[in-house]
Amino acid sequence: MNVAPDFIDIGIALLLLPFLYILNQYLFKKLKEKHSFFSGRLMNILSLYHLLFAAIYYAYARFNPSDSKRYFNLVKETDHGWMHFFQTETHFIDFMSYPFIKYMGFSYEMMMLLFAWIGFLGFVYAYVFFKEHISLEIKVFKKIDFLLLILFLPNMHFWTASLGKGAPIFLGLMLFAYALKLPKERWATLLTGSLLIFAIRPHMLLLVAMGAVTGVMLCRHHFSWKRKAAIVAGVITGLLLFQEPILRVVNLHNSSDLVGDFIRFSENRSGKLAASDSGVNMAHYSIPEKFFTFWFRPLFFDAPGFFGIIVSIENLIYLLIFGKIFRTKFLRFIKHAPAYVKTSLALFLLTSFAMTFIMSNLGIIIRQKTMIMYFMFFVVYYYLGQEKKITLGLNTEEDSRSLPKAA
C-alpha cells in the first residue's frame, strides 16, 4: 500500500462525518429517552476526542506496520464471495468490511473512519453502563471526576479507533456489560454483544461466560438455587455448542489432554513473544508478578520509546485507581455486592489470569488489556459510589448494614 496519503481519499472519507453525526444524535436521543442522566453534549465532545485518535492512528499506520492495511487490502484484492469470510476471528473483520469495500467502494480512509465510529459506540455504552448504576459524581485524586477520567484515557481510544478487532470487540464487551443489569429486558443487546465477542475472539466469550457464572454463583441472596442451576446449564450448553471454534483459537480442538496441551501451548506462545523486541520473559514470574506486568507495565523504567512513556503515564493512573480498593472495607463490600459487580470482577480476573500465560510482549499486552480494563474500573467506581452513598446517608442497593462504613 502506498505510504503517501491520498488527500482526495481523505476528503471523501470526511464526507462520512455528517452521516455518522446524524446516527449519533439518533442513538443519543433513544438513550436519553431510557436514561434521564444521559448527556448528549458530553458524548459529542467524546466523539470529537475519539476522532482525534482516529486521525493519530491513521497517521501512525501510514508510516508503521498496521493490521488495518492487511484487512483492507485482503478484502479489496480477493476474488472470493462475501460468505467465504463468514468465520470467526480475523476473517470476521473481513466479513464486516466486505460489503463496504466491495459493494460500496469504501477506501482505506473510509474504513478507518467507520471502524473508529464503531469503537466510539463502545464508549457510549461504557458511559451508560457506569452512570446507570452510580449516578453520583465520584471524585478521585481530590478534584478529578472518575468517570470522565476513564472515558478520556488516551490508550483506550488509540486501540479502538481503526480498522481491526479492537473497535468491534470493545463494543461487544460494553454491550454485554450494559445488558448485565436487566438481561431479560435487554436480551437483544446481550445477544448482540455476545455474538460480537464470539465472532471476533471466541475464547473471550468463554471467559465472559465463566465470569457471569462465577458472579451469579457468588450471589447468595439475589438468585435462587433453581435459577442458578438454570443459568449454569444454559451457559454450559452454549459452550458445548461452540467448543470447537473456541478451542481452535489455541489449537486444542483435536486435543485429548486439554490441560497439558494448553500448558505446552502457553509456554511456546510466551517464549515466542518474549523473544521479540518488546518482550518480557514472564515464564518464571510468580502469579502476582504476572498480574502486575499485565495490568501496569510498561512503567517508566521499561517504557519502549516515546509511545511507551505515554502508556506509562496511563499505567500509573491504573495503578493509583487500583490502589483505591486495597483496604479491608473493599473485601466486605465485594462480599455483599450485586451480581453484575461480582461478574465484572470475576471476568476481569479470569481474563487477566488466562492472558498472563500467553502474553509476554509489552506491545500486545498494551493492546489486549484495553478490552477488559473497564470491567475493573466499574468495580472500583461502584465501590467508591457505594461508599459515597453511605457517607451521604443515601440508600444503597445492598443492605447498608453489611457494607463498610465510610471513613
Task: Tell me the layout of helices and strands.
Elements: H1 7-14, H2 16-34, H3 40-63, H4 67-77, H5 90-103, H6 108-133, E1 139-140, E2 144-145, H7 146-151, H8 154-158, H9 166-179, H10 187-200, H11 202-217, H12 225-241, H13 243-248, H14 258-274, H15 287-296, H16 305-322, H17 328-336, H18 339-356, H19 362-368, H20 373-392
Antiparallel strand pairs: 1-2
What brief labels describe this structure?
single chain, 407 residues, mainly alpha, 2 domains, two-stranded antiparallel sheet, 20 helices, disordered C terminus
Structure description:
The chain has helices spanning about 5-15, 15-35, 40-65, 65-75, 90-105, 110-135, 145-150, 155-160, 165-180, 185-200, 200-215, 225-240, 245-250, 260-275, 285-295, 305-320, 330-335, 340-355, 360-370, 375-390, and strands spanning about 140, 145. With about 400 residues, it is mainly α. Strands 1-2 form a two-stranded antiparallel ribbon. Helices cover about 70% and strands about 0% of the residues. Mean pLDDT is about 80; it is low at about 250-265, about 270-280 and about 400-405. It folds into two domains: about 1-200, no CATH class; about 200-405, no CATH class.
